[in-house]
Amino acid sequence: MKKLLILAILLTSLGLSLYAQAFMDGEKLTFKVKYGIVSAAEATLEARTSVYQGTPVWYLSTNAKTYSFFDKFFKVRDRVESWWNKESYLPHKFAKNLHEGNYRQHRVHIYDHKAAKTTYQRWSYKEARFNNSEMDMPRDSQDILSAFYYVRNQNLQVGKSIMVNITADGRNMPTEVMVHRKEKIKSIFGEVECLVIEPKLRGEALFKQTGSIYIWVTNDQYKIPLKLESKVSFGSFVAILESAQKVPLKLK
């Protein structure tokens, strides 16, 4: 579940693709997360219409939690959120709150794209308060979560990469998203041809991962994620899409 959808990523000189918007209002994707042969956790990825300080936005969120029996071994309760402008396709705010075993993290970014600056807020558990700092950033910066939705709106092609500027965790991270190959896999939509993509993020993604992440997205205008593989702080995992709401594809 870790890193579910990290996915991290793209925004540069390509602009939005010629496709219509890749996702529907109210889309909710639920993944079963396996560590080895054990089904240990569930993760969701959602997108819905909302408002941020009077401005229409996409409220994007991902939640990951281990099942109660697995909590005894390694408890995970992660939530990541993004408020993504519907017109500019740039984020207003990004928040990440992680609880993974003994590891804790609570970080927030507030973006000012006109000034090309961001306010970075990092919660100190010892002091019980946020420590704030201001930093410069590229004007076209995405956060880690919004970058994945941006990628879904692109015309991805095998053998080609897309670059995106990501500002998160107090750093600016130019990130390459590689499109490795086409591959058919079985899914809740039947057998579907996918593109296998790899976001090469220099730093943590949505979760505290320790290795590469590979994502299988449908090879169409929707780019629905069907499968994700990665290594995390305590092993490797596979996340498989097990249910979907508000999607244009028919369930089998």
Largest sheet: 14 strands, antiparallel
Shape: globular
Mean pLDDT: 88
Beta-strand content estimate: over 45%
Strand order of the largest sheet: 8-7-6-5-4-3-2-1-14-13-12-11-10-9
Q: Helices and strands, in N-to-C order?
A: EEEHEEEEEHEEEEEE
Topology:
Blueprint: E1 27-35, E2 38-52, E3 55-66, H1 68-71, E4 77-85, E5 91-100, E6 103-112, E7 117-124, E8 129-136, H2 144-152, E9 161-168, E10 171-187, E11 190-200, E12 209-218, E13 225-232, E14 235-245
Antiparallel strand pairs: 1-2, 1-14, 2-3, 3-4, 4-5, 5-6, 6-7, 7-8, 9-10, 10-11, 11-12, 12-13, 13-14
General description of the model:
By secondary structure, the chain is mainly beta. It has one domain (27-242). It has 2 helices and 14 strands. The protein has helices at residues 68-71, 144-152, and strands at residues 27-35, 38-52, 55-66, 77-85, 91-100, 103-112, 117-124, 129-136, 161-168, 171-187, 190-200, 209-218, 225-232, 235-245. Strands 8-7-6-5-4-3-2-1-14-13-12-11-10-9 form a 14-stranded antiparallel sheet. Residues 1-19 and 205-209 have low confidence and may be disordered.
